[in-house]
Amino acid sequence: MKELLRSTDPTVLAFASALLEGEDIDCFQMDVNMSILEGGIGIFPRRLMVREDDYTLAKRAMLDNKIPLGNDI
What we know:
Blueprint: E1 2-7, H1 10-22, E2 27-30, H2 35-38, E3 46-50, H3 55-64
Antiparallel strand pairs: 1-3, 2-3
């Protein structure tokens, strides 16, 4: 798995996940349960992971839809 996106905004992650699903690219959100440690205030970013084989296609889908990658959000 390779990190595609990192964000503290759950709406960006939901949109990105739906977009990838529409492109038939499997993705997985990591660090979802960190809210237990942070008290639900949303300071720890969540990571959206994709298979290494799908990374280039997933990155293109994100950039085509103007979703910043990495720590840009």
